[in-house]
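Input.
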Amino acid sequence: MVKKILFIPLGVMLGAAALGLAFPLLTGLPGSEQNIIPRFANKWHLGDGSENNPTLQYVVKYHDMEFLAEIRFLDKTLHTQDIVVVIDDKKTGQHVEDEMQIGDAFVFTDISDEIKPYVHALDATVFSVRDTIVEERYLVVGAEWGTVFVGKFTPKLARSDTRTWNLNLEL
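Output.
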């Protein structure tokens, strides 16, 4: 009789342990697909660093255009930032310089007709990332940054590596 009484609690404990081990596997909780949000990781957003007034240069090849674009970031307000765009067209030799504003997510405003084709090329090349990353994202490996639509495929954008880059910035 005493042995039967000992087997009942032992059976309950073994059953609870088996249920506790099998529950996550049966319900899909927690696993490799967990979305862990770090508490103290840095966040990055499009335009992060533009408040330091950098000057960026790009060689842009777009359709039949090829030009050197220099973008100087100036004063920043809550929703806009003044920029100077300098274009040196390699094919026509044309030099265009214009001051304009960019709004949230790097949308160009106040564009003159003379520089409009170049701004369209910058939209489709250099600033094309703005269509994907418009809010702060974590700077940790595996953090999802959005989805890209390529034909019928929709791959997720995620951080895959962490590196330190040395940039020679003129301030």
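The mean pLDDT is 75.
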